[in-house]
Write a structure and sequence with these properties.
Blueprint: H1 37-52, H2 56-69, H3 72-84, H4 88-101, H5 104-116, H6 120-132, H7 136-148, H8 152-165, H9 170-179, H10 183-197, H11 207-222, H12 226-239, H13 242-254, H14 258-270, H15 274-286, H16 290-302, H17 306-318, H18 323-334, H19 338-350, H20 354-366, H21 370-382, H22 386-398, H23 402-414, H24 418-431, H25 434-446, H26 450-463, H27 482-492, H28 496-508, H29 512-524, H30 528-540, H31 544-556, H32 560-573, H33 576-589, H34 592-610
Helix pairs in contact: 1-2, 2-3, 2-4, 3-4, 4-5, 5-6, 6-7, 6-8, 7-8, 8-9, 9-10, 10-11, 11-12, 12-13, 13-14, 14-15, 15-16, 16-17, 16-18, 17-18, 18-19, 19-20, 20-21, 21-22, 22-23, 23-24, 24-25, 25-26, 26-27, 27-28, 28-29, 29-30, 30-31, 31-32, 32-33, 32-34, 33-34
Length: 611
């Protein structure tokens, strides 16, 4: 009898991976049909009548319907009768039935008959049967037979087998399976492409591979693959498409993916919806996501609910997240529970948490245990902690080991540490390497360091040519130079010396109001030079009493010239004793030329007083 075409494929039995994909084959009568129960009952009745008249195809279809319903006893006689008549689909489904009864070898026998007759589904089932038993050559043979006939599950199973062996042909078959609609194949193909782009899957590194990975993630996610939806959401989030990313995270989270629920929580938090974020973090944390538990802990810590925060940090630890121990250490440190903080930092540090190692070292250093701190700083720095590298620089600089300190500063600076770049810049200035100094100072200043901005300005200031003058001999002031801009940046960040310098530059331009503003800001922040210069400015404007107030503040802070100015003010007023007192102070404070002038004034006042 002629063998009929496939009418059925392997039913899902729960023993093979990715069960959802077994319902993705097309045109197989043994798969779930899109009809209601009434329609299915009518179909069954129709097939039963036809089978009773000896219709082989009806026997095969009826057996598949009963098998799908789980009625093995009812299905078996119909499948055996159809198989005996040469229906290969029935032979395949008879194998499924026997496999479900636990007769794996008998099932394989019928699958072999169907596969030899050309059933791609049976070849796939037979291939997986052999693979389960460790017979990889036989498994590859039958899976290849199935794949080459266009069977998506066969192509996927073959790709999985080849990938397991490290065969380069695996990707080709994974791609074929994905193109035929196999969602797990699409996901795994996307993951393989993603891994070529680096740990973050940055599509900017290789736009072609990144775009293709995204395409396959989309295909798998659209077919309900929750991990594909998670990764697609991450790609979109990195790109800045937050609304679409949120939709895919939500889809994945609703399907039970804890990492997606956690990611969705962070998106909501960043959007200002903390309450909704907490709902998704709670859901993820309850499903064992340590990152979400840490996020909940941080949220409660911010609210001052330290006991609840500690409970969630412990939950994160229980989920295997070392950040939980580190965060517990931070919590205890904030509460001055130093011994407990050290305990948690150690636990995280021993587990390889680099920032915990750095925090532990800082704690030990604060307790005076320099020897105990150094190895933890080193461990953290070698693991990639930029802060630890910088802290090692500070540690060695404190010991006078400048060369070693500089190496650690350079390492931290290369990773973008602002203060480390400043230290390298200062060291290069000290060595006379102005070019390298400027490069590092620019990095540090650009990173927000006021001190770096000030020092960069002084480097540029020293290079400026003298201010030109026109024919009348008056200075010509052009627009603000780059060094002035850096001075102003440092000054606006509260750098007192920069504020004084900006005031001086403004005064040189004749902008007395601007100069006074910067001098006053510096003086009120404690700058004695700012107070002195403000006094000079006020004195030139005829405000001697107010000038004396600022000179007094400067002199009390140790400014010799301010003390000398006060001595002159009181001498002119005729308050000789007060003038002599300030002259004595100016002699003591210096510098040399001030001390010399103050001594002469003091002696003159003494003679005047004794006359």
């Amino acid at each position: 009898m002629d063998v009929m075409g496939d009418k059925a494929t392997l039913l899902e039995t729960g023993r093979f991976v990715q069960p959802a994909d077994f319902s993705e084959s097309t045109g197989d009568l043994s798969q779930p049909m899109d009809r209601d129960e009434t329609g299915e009952a009518a179909e069954e009745a129709r097939q039963r009548l036809a089978a009773q008249t000896g219709d082989v195809e009806a026997m095969s279809v009826l057996g598949a319907l009963l098998l799908r319903r789980g009625d093995l006893d009812g299905a078996e006689p119909h499948l055996r009768a159809a198989t005996a008549a040469g229906d290969r689909a029935a032979a395949n489904n008879l194998g499924v039935l026997l496999h479900q009864r636990g007769y794996a070898e008998d099932a394989a026998g019928w699958w072999r008959i169907a596969a030899v007759a050309g059933s791609a589904a049976a070849a796939h089932a037979l291939g997986r049967h052999h693979r389960e038993r460790g017979d990889e050559p036989a498994a590859e043979y039958w899976l290849r037979q199935s794949a080459e006939q266009g069977h998506a599950l066969g192509a996927y199973a073959l790709a999985d087998l080849l990938e397991h062996r490290g065969d380069t042909g695996a990707e080709q078959w994974m791609r074929i399976a994905a193109e035929r609609g196999h969602r797990e194949a699409a996901y795994r193909l996307a993951r393989a492409l993603d891994r070529r782009l680096g740990p973050e899957g940055d599509v900017g590194d290789d736009h072609g591979a990144g775009a293709e990975a995204e395409q396959w993630y989309r295909q798998a996610a659209a077919r309900g693959h929750r991990r594909a939806a998670l990764h697609l959401g991450a790609i979109l989030e990195r790109r800045g498409a937050l609304k679409e990313a949120g939709r895919w995270y939500l889809t994945s989270a609703k399907d039970g993916e804890a990492r997606a629920a956690c990611a969705l929580g962070f998106l909501l938090r960043d959007a200002g919806d903390t309450e909704s974020a907490a709902v998704w973090w709670l859901r993820a944390a309850q499903d064992g996501d340590g990152n979400a538990a840490n996020a909940l802990g941080a949220l409660h810590a911010e609210r001052g609910e330290s006991q609840t925060a500690e409970r969630w940090y412990r939950a994160a630890m229980d989920a295997g997240d070392d950040n939980g121990a580190y965060n517990l250490g931070l919590l205890c440190a904030e509460q001055a529970r130093t011994a407990q903080a050290e305990q948690w930092y150690r636990r995280a540090a021993y587990a390889g948490h680099r920032e915990a190692a750095n925090a532990l070292a800082i704690l030990l250093l604060q307790g005076g245990d320099t020897a105990g701190a150094e190895p933890w700083f080193s461990k953290a720095a070698e693991a990639g902690s930029v802060d630890a590298a910088f802290n090692l620089g500070i540690l060695f600089a404190g010991r006078g080991e400048e060369a070693v300190a500089l190496r650690w500063y350079e390492r931290a600076a290369a990773a973008g540490h602002t203060e480390a770049a400043l230290q390298v810049g200062i060291a290069r200035l000290r060595d006379g390497d102005e070019t390298e100094a400027e490069r590092h100072l620019r990095c540090a200043a650009g990173g927000g360091s006021a001190e770096a901005a000030y020092r960069l300005a002084t480097v540029l200031d020293a290079r400026r040519p003298p201010v030109p003058a026109h024919s009348l001999g008056e200075p010509v002031h052009a627009g603000k130079s780059e060094c002035e801009e850096w001075y102003e940046r440092a000054a606006s960040q509260g750098h007192r010396r920069a504020q004084v310098r900006v005031g001086m530059l403004a005064a040189a331009r004749g902008d007395v109001v601007e100069a006074a503003r910067w001098y006053r800001e510096a003086a009120e922040a404690g700058s004695r030079n700012g107070a002195f210069n403000l006094g000079l400015l006020l004195a030139r404007e005829g405000s001697d009493p107010e000038a004396a107030v600022w000179w007094t503040r400067a002199a009390d802070a140790g400014h010799g010239r301010a003390a000398l100015r006060l001595a002159l003010v009181y001498a002119r007023r005729g308050e000789l004793a007060e003038g002599q007192r300030w002259a004595d102070r100016a002699v003591a404070l210096g510098p040399a030329e001030v001390s010399e002038r103050a001594a002469r004034l003091r002696d003159a006042l003494r003679e005047e007083l004794s006359a």
